[in-house]
Amino acid sequence: MFQVINHVFSATECAEIRQKLEQGKWIDGALTAGTLAQRVKQNLQLDDQQEIAQQLSQDVEQRLMQTPEFVSHALPNIFYPPKFNLYQNGGFYGAHVDNAVLQHPYRPVQMRADLSATLFLNDPESYEGGALQIDTGMGVQEIKLNAGDMILYDSGALHQVLPVTKGQRIASFMWIQSLVQDSKNRAMLYQLDNSIQTLRLELTDEHEQVQQLTELYHNLLRCWTK
Questions:
Q1: Burial environment of residue 172 by CB neighbours within 10 A (0 to 12, 13 to 18, 19 or more)
Q2: Residue 199 CA to chain centroid, in angstroms?
Q3: At a CB cut-off of 8 Å and minimum separation 6, what does 6 contact?
Q4: Distance of alpha carbon 188 from alpha carbon 61, whole angstroms
Q5: CA distances from 15 to 21, 45, 59, 80 (A)
Q6: 3-state SS class at 195
């Protein structure tokens, strides 16, 4: 239902990102929310029209595409450009489900939101509250990660950000259309890829078992890609 990806950015890199964010213009997050979401959303978002916002967005997307665990789990096809938000002074985002279909802001395409992601940019000790709650269908999980770590979860999951009662919670958030729409199929491909990578450490790439599993992986990917 969700996957934690550690060390997407280092602590030093996160500090540099936060310094750049301080130079940006922040707007009311409710301005970018749908009609229903406006009633339960109280935060700030970095104005996407600024050059600094667009550059940081590109930096996050580029780093994720260079992160093997993210690529293996998400199998990204289309990114909705990463955004940045800030919660403080009791700010929160009540229980909601992300939109199923999004209009890409820079391309004349609509994209299906298969996966949602939050990249934490400051450590949990620097603020109180602000946990991301995700209803997994088997219970509610509360997520607060270290700076540079990411949580990746199904966009159809009911989730919320609890009020930040002290300090600031700073994060990047985004949506991904995967090459493989079905979450169970993605999970099986992720498990298979992990097995292949483990075997590659023990055997050569030319070993028969490695080649057979690699062939199976790509044939399943070919069957399930939409």
A1: buried
A2: 28
A3: 146, 148, 149
A4: 24
A5: 10, 18, 14, 24
A6: helix
Query: Could you tell me the pTM of the whole model?
Result: 0.93
What SS3 class is residue 12?
helix
Q: What is the mean pLDDT of the chain?
A: 94
- Which ranges of 51-172 does DSSP label H, i.e. alpha helix? 51-65, 68-74
Query: How far apart (Å, rounded) are the C-alpha atoms in residues 207 and 150?
Result: 34
User: Strand locations in the chain, DSSP E?
Assistant: 2-5, 26-28, 41-42, 44-46, 76-88, 92-96, 101-103, 110-112, 115-120, 127-129, 132-135, 140-143, 150-154, 159-161, 164-178
CA nearest to 73, candidates 186, 183, 226, 156: 186
Q: What's the distance, CA 162 to chain centroid?
A: 18
Residue-wise pLDDT tens digits, 81-132: 999 999 999 999 999 999 999 999 999 999 999 999 999 999 999 999 999 9
Q: Rounded to 5 degrees, what are φ and ψ at 167?
A: 80, -160
DSSP per position, 149-163: -EEEEETTS-EEE--
The two structure tokens encoding residue 216: 């199976």
